């Protein structure tokens, strides 16, 4: 049930989806893997939209070199745990939601427990090995995964619904080499907004999701492209899932 | 015979994009990309390894359909083909 205060806070967006939609957002629990360049804008906008529970996992402390893009963290936070900094800002932005933060590294042995019973997983990581872990958890638990990644002025995003769409390993079977990537804050800002919009649409059951499509953004050209993706029946991550569902190939 | 080659992200910075290439009949997909990429060694080496094989993370699309890089040499390009080549980005 929405409080009067919440009704007032969300008045302008409830014009889009009413009490019922806002209740869906309030009941939702979204897991955000990373409180960095993508995790910052995603968590801010999911918080202001009124997602009832956000769980944010990060293992790092705030470094000066993060501040050109990680807008959850301020100059005064340098040296502080990103999770602490994120919790403080998000609670100040919207005290009507629950923010849970976990200061740890996402690994194979803990990834499933960390995600718990979340309704969606935001991929705000900066490397593919961690992304594949999230992809595996998403498939195992049948929780949607909202992928985003960036480099410089370039970004990509896609939405994965396990059991229905191409998964991350279908789209990117091999990880690109790990590198110190150049980045300007506007790029994760933009890709994070695509991810957050997808989460809202998924929860509200409203609109066309970015499934089986890879959104590619070239900020230098101000050009967006989408490439159709199909499920790989030989996929090592999700292939078996489809077999157990009665060969829906 | 003319085909269109589009590079994305870092590949675009090194090789340009929206390239209309004039190619001979029976040109394979890897030969087409090598032909277009040979003008820039760094660009070529970003896409191909030292054995001239596609690097394993390269994504290849032909007329909006994904082509497995391992099977690329079985693909003979046709007049009017639209070929897209891009690297996944990893940062976050």
Draw up the topology in text.
The complex is a heterodimer of chains A (249) and B (92).
Chain A: H1 4-9, H2 11-27, E1 29-33, H3 39-49, E2 53-58, H4 82-93, E3 98-103, H5 108-115, E4 120-123, H6 128-141, E5 145-151, E6 154-160, H7 168-171, H8 186-204, E7 213-218, E8 223-228, H9 239-244
Parallel strand pairs in A: 1-2, 1-4, 2-3, 4-5
Antiparallel strand pairs in A: 5-6, 6-7, 7-8
Helix pairs in contact in A: 3-4, 3-8, 5-6
Chain B: E1 2-7, H1 9-15, E2 19-22, H2 29-37, H3 41-47, E3 59-62, E4 65-67, E5 82-86
Parallel strand pairs in B: 1-5
Antiparallel strand pairs in B: 1-2, 3-4, 3-5
Helix pairs in contact in B: 1-3
List the defining traits of the structure above.
heterodimer, A: 249 residues, alpha/beta, Rossmann fold, eight-stranded mixed β-sheet, 9 helices, globular, B: 92 residues, alpha+beta, Ubiquitin-like (UB roll), five-stranded mixed β-sheet, 5 strands
Q: How would you concisely characterize the structure shown here?
A:
By secondary structure, chain A is of the alpha/beta class. Chain A has helices at 4-9, 11-27, 39-49, 82-93, 108-115, 128-141, 168-171, 186-204, 239-244, and strands at 29-33, 53-58, 98-103, 120-123, 145-151, 154-160, 213-218, 223-228.
Write the H/E string of chain A, N to C: HHEHEHEHEHEEHHEEH
Q: Report the span from N to C terminus of chain B.
A: 41 Å
Total E-strand runs of chain B: 5
Computed over alpha carbons, the radius of gyration of chain B is 12 Å
Which chains have the largest interface? A-B, 36 and 19 residues
Helix/strand structural class of chain A: alpha/beta
Query: What is the name of the CATH topology of chain A?
Result: Rossmann fold
How much β-strand is present in the residues of chain A? 15-25%
Any idea of the CATH topology of chain B?
Ubiquitin-like (UB roll)
How much of the polypeptide of chain B forms β-strand, as a percent range?
Answer: 15-25%
Order of neighbouring strands in the sheet with most strands of chain A: 3-2-1-4-5-6-7-8
- List low-pLDDT spans of chain B: none
**Could you tell me how far the N terminus lies from the C terminus of chain A, measured between alpha carbons in angstroms?**
41 Å
Query: Can you identify the CATH superfamily of chain A?
Result: NAD(P)-binding Rossmann-like Domain
* Average pLDDT score of chain B: 92
Helix content of chain B: 25-40%
């Amino acid at each position: 049930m929405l409080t009067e205060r919440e009704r007032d806070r969300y008045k302008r967006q409830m014009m889009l989806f009413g009490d019922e939609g806002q209740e869906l957002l309030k009941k939702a629990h979204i897991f955000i893997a990373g409180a960095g360049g993508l995790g910052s804008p995603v968590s801010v906008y999911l918080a202001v939209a009124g997602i009832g529970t956000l769980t944010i996992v990060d293992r790092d402390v705030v470094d000066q070199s993060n501040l050109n893009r990680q807008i959850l963290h301020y100059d005064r936070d340098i040296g502080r745990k990103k999770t602490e900094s994120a919790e403080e800002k998000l609670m100040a932005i919207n005290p009507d939601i629950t923010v849970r933060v976990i200061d740890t590294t996402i690994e194979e042995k803990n990834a499933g427990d960390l995600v718990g019973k979340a309704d969606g997983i935001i991929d705000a990581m900066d490397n593919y090995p961690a992304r594949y872990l999230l992809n595996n958890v998403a498939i195992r638990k049948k929780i949607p995964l909202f992928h985003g990644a960036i480099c410089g002025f370039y970004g990509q995003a896609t939405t994965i619904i396990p059991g229905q769409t191409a998964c991350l390993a279908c789209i990117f079977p091999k990880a690109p080499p790990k590198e110190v990537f150049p980045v300007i804050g506007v790029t994760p800002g933009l890709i994070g907004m695509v991810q957050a919009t997808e989460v809202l649409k998924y929860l509200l059951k409203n609109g066309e999701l970015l499934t089986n499509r890879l959104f590619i953004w070239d900020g230098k050209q101000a050009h967006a492209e989408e490439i159709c993706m199909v499920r790989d029946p030989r996929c090592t991550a999700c292939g078996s899932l489809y077999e157990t569902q009665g060969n829906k190939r | 015979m003319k085909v269109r080659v589009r590079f994305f992200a870092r590949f675009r910075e090194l090789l340009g994009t929206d390239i209309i290439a004039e190619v001979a009949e029976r040109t394979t997909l890897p030969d087409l990309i090598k032909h277009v990429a040979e003008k820039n060694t760094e660009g070529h080496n970003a896409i191909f390894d030292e054995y001239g094989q596609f690097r394993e993370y390269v994504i290849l699309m032909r007329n909006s359909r994904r082509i497995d890089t391992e099977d690329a040499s079985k693909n003979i390009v046709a007049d009017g083909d639209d070929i897209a080549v891009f690297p996944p980005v990893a940062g976050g």
